[in-house]
Design a protein that fits this description.
The protein has helices at 5-9, 18-27, 43-50, 69-79, and strands at residues 31-40, 84-91. It is an alpha+beta fold and 98 residues long. The chain has one domain (5-91). Strands 1-2 form a two-stranded antiparallel ribbon. It is elongated and about 50 Å long. The mean pLDDT is 79.
Length: 98
């Protein structure tokens, strides 16, 4: 995997696997833990997060990294389709069911 600090600080790399995250919530005492929504990022979505087009005046939300574009492109190619944003729900003991 291409290791780029910019991807780590943009919450793109360094994340834990989904199953491990859900298990951690259960270990913290939540029940009925489930993923309610998932967005798996494709190449275009990752590029929009990480690549800034200074010529167009378009700033990426996590851009301004100073990392050469070819290194960012290589990282995006490697992780496209493997990174997701999830919406998780759970219930704390004694709490209302949702």
């Amino acid at each position: 995997m291409v290791e780029l600090g910019a991807l780590y600080s943009a919450c793109i790399t360094g994340a834990i696997p989904e199953a491990e995250y859900l298990d951690g919530l259960r270990k913290a005492g939540l029940s009925d833990v489930a993923v309610n929504d998932r967005l798996v990022y494709d190449r275009g979505q990752l590029a929009a997060l990480l690549v800034s087009d200074a010529a167009e005046g378009d700033g990426a939300c996590c851009g301004g990294t100073g990392i050469p574009r070819e290194r960012i492109d290589a990282a995006i190619d490697e992780i496209a389709g493997k990174v997701a944003s999830v919406r998780v729900a759970g219930r704390k003991p004694g709490g209302p069911r949702r």
